[in-house]
Design goal:
The complex is a heterodimer. By secondary structure, chain A is an alpha/beta fold. In chain A, 27% of the residues lie in helices and 21% in strands. Chain A has seven helices and eleven strands. Chain A has an eleven-stranded mixed β-sheet, sandwiched between helices. In chain A, helix 2 packs across helix 6. Chain A is globular and about 55 Å long. Chain A starts with a strand and ends with a strand. By secondary structure, chain B is α/β, with parallel strands linked by helices. Chain B is built from five helices and nine strands. Chain B has a six-stranded mixed β-sheet with strand order 1-2-3-4-5-9. Chain B has a three-stranded antiparallel β-sheet with strand order 7-6-8, with no helix packed on it. The two termini of chain B are 30 Å apart. The chains are: A alpha/beta, B alpha/beta. Chains A and B meet through helix 5 and helix 7 of A and helix 2 and helix 3 of B.
Chain lengths: 311, 165
């Protein structure tokens, strides 16, 4: 028997659907009519899945009842865009995952997000799209070879056959993944960033043991890219804060100074349908972006986002 | 290594016309491109395919400085540029967009096409916010707008002719 998942979904048909998704994620769903109606021992739950179908934030369901600083991971299923939710939550604790109910692969993304948040799926985020041809990977060690890595990756994905919009998205995602992994991720033994403030025109070469690995695979419908660095210097809350800040058009939207991973993460977010981040502090950070081939452009950003950080 | 970033610059009738192409990234040297320009600058970005995060940061800094003292007009903005105008605050500094390109896709031919429209009068001609209908130059079939209509035209909202961005 798997661990228990608290399911907070008022609308019955959606609740039944979410319970089914939680069960597929290896959990025992326990539907709650409301939070606070009884003294709940939150320690017994592996995850809280909150959703409503009104277009309002599922978090409104938990207001006043569910503490913001809870240690129970929260997966939030929303009928709004992720961008709206990230902006709304900008100054509050973020959930482990957000999945938009109109996401083209909602059920698959929700199963994955719930399993990862609950810890029933501790695999790498190095996921391959359904029906993918075998994936390939390359070691990314030299910043001056960035464009060569991207060309190699595109060739491996049959770049000539891809629509320009898709190949542009793949290039954009790979570009930012490589830059962040080479410049922002590396830390010294004391955890201090090595190259975060280095001019991006200055060459960085990492020895192979410290170099990130970029993996990629494509199927008929989608392409996934994963970058894994051996540092684990990114923080889950930082991911949400970066995205929440960059999604709001304001004078402070982007830092004028060079460096920083925020704008790069935001650029990835705006080119993928799904974004998964898996961090083991001090050990590794993995970022996976999935680009759907058949969909119209993603002007408002990803439809699902999962961020897990485990000691 | 500047990828495939290219530019040309010439002075015509008191206006500096700068034409940019390819990828704007950390190696694009935008500061050099916009040195020694006249008081009016026309920037053609029809062939900009992509701009990365380093490019965005540099672009915003350069455009902010440039447009503080000169009249900056963007023409033929590519879809990659339009998306940035929609997402990034002050992306064009005080400059204005005169014309931009619309992306379309032909399912039958599996081909992408772009068409240029003028900002002036666009919202009056298309008050419903829908993209105009075009036909595929090859098969003459109807083309599908290849972006999200409710987002793509956002940069023009509440702006007059030559959208300030």
């Amino acid at each position: 028997m798997g661990p228990e998942a608290a399911i907070l979904v008022p609308e019955e048909s959606l609740r039944n659907r979410v319970c089914g998704i939680a069960a597929r994620a290896g959990l025992r769903p326990r539907p709650l009519s409301s939070v606070g109606s009884e003294e709940l021992d939150w320690n017994r739950f592996a995850v809280l899945v909150a959703a409503d179908d009104t277009g309002e934030s599922g978090y409104s369901l938990t207001n006043g009842h569910f503490p913001d600083n809870t240690v129970v991971p929260v997966v939030f299923l929303t009928a709004r865009t992720l961008a709206e939710v990230l902006i709304e939550r900008a100054d509050r604790t973020f959930p482990s995952a957000i999945v938009s109910t109109f996401c083209h692969c909602f059920e698959r993304a929700a199963v994955q997000a719930i399993a990862r948040a609950a810890g029933t799926d501790t695999r790498s985020t190095e996921i391959m799209p359904a029906g993918a041809q075998c994936g390939k990977s390359l070691v990314v060690s030299d910043s001056k070879r960035k464009n060569a890595y991207i060309e190699e990756l595109l060739a491996g994905l049959g770049g000539a056959e891809l629509r320009q919009r898709v190949s542009t998205a793949v290039k954009a995602v790979a570009d930012e993944m490589i830059t962040n992994a080479l410049y922002n991720a590396p830390t010294d033994d004391s955890g201090k960033p090595c190259h975060a403030s280095t001019d991006r025109r200055k060459r960085i070469v990492l020895e192979e043991a410290r170099a990130p690995r970029l993996s990629y695979a494509g199927s008929r419908d989608s392409i996934s890219l994963t970058i894994r660095d051996p540092f684990g210097s990114l923080r889950a809350q930082t991911v949400f804060k970066y995205l929440g800040k960059a999604l709001v058009k304001s004078p402070s939207q982007i830092d004028r100074k060079p460096g920083g991973a925020g704008l790069g993460l935001f650029t990835i977010f705006t080119h993928v349908n799904g974004l998964l981040v898996h961090i083991q502090p001090g050990h590794f950070t993995e970022v996976t972006g999935t680009v759907c081939k058949g969909q119209a452009a993603i002007s408002s950003g990803a439809e699902y986002l999962s961020v897990s950080e485990r000691k | 290594m500047s990828g495939n970033f290219e530019f040309s610059k010439e002075n015509r009738d008191g206006v500096t016309v700068v034409t940019l192409a390819g990828l704007i990234d950390e190696d694009a040297m935008l500061e050099e491109v916009f040195k020694d320009v006249l008081d009016e600058v026309l920037i053609d970005t029809a062939a900009i395919a992509r701009i990365n995060s380093c490019g965005i940061r540099t672009w915003v800094n350069v455009m902010t400085a440039l447009s503080a003292g000169k009249r900056v007009v963007f023409i033929e903005c590519s879809p990659a540029m339009v998306r940035q105008f929609n997402m990034i605050s002050n992306f064009g500094g005080r400059g204005t967009v005169r014309s931009f390109r619309l992306p379309y896709y032909c399912d039958k031919c599996d081909a992408e096409h772009e068409f240029t429209v003028q900002v002036e009068g666009y919202q009056q001609e298309h008050p419903d916010g829908r993209a105009p209908a075009y036909r595929c130059p090859t098969c003459r079939g109807p083309l599908e707008f290849d972006d999200l209509e409710d987002r793509y035209f956002g940069f023009m909202e509440a702006k007059g002719p030559e959208s300030g961005v």
